[in-house]
Amino acid sequence: MNHPELIQPESLAQFNAAKMGKSTIFMSDRMLVGLNAFEPGQEHALHGHADQDKVYHVLEGNGLFLLEGRDIEMGAGMMLVAPAGIPHGVRNTSDQRLIVLVFMAPAPVPR
Predict the structure, then answer these.
(1) pTM of the model
(2) Quick one: 105 exposed, middle or buried, by C-beta within 10 A (0-12, 13-18, 19+)?
(3) What does 48-89 look like in DSSP terms, one character per residue?
């Protein structure tokens, strides 16, 4: 994707029947901007990033966000910060699709 240009993130969501879909919107050494797309019942298991902060912003749908031992219900327009080292995850507990805009800093090192 060329930048700068206007982006409608929801249009870039990639759903996968077998597992959570991921799309990268932008990536530099300093930051990653991506989308996580969940079909009903899908989840991104509890995990952590020792050296990366992560921000979740729900664009569409509702879900359960797991953060440091808490389950937090979130819906469209809500945002949650998972600081580096704090376990976090996402579960789509609804019967609708869930689209989450994700920011990570610094960006993950490509494998």
Answers:
(1) 0.92
(2) middle
(3) --TT-EEEEEEEESEEEEEETTEEEEEETT-EEEE-TT--EE
Neighbour-count burial of 82, counting CB atoms closer than 10 A to its CB (0-12 exposed, 13-18 middle, 19+ buried): buried
Burial code of 5-33, b = ≥16 C-beta within 10 A, e = fewer?
eeeebeebbeeeeeebbebebeeeeeebb
Distances (CA, A) of 81 to 17, 43, 102: 27, 18, 10
Domain ranges across the chain: 18-101
18-101 homologous superfamily: Jelly Rolls (2.60.120.10)
Pick from 56, 52, 19: which is nearest to 38 by CA? 19
What are the pLDDT digits (tens) for 55-92?
A: 999 999 999 999 988 999 999 999 999 999 999 999 99
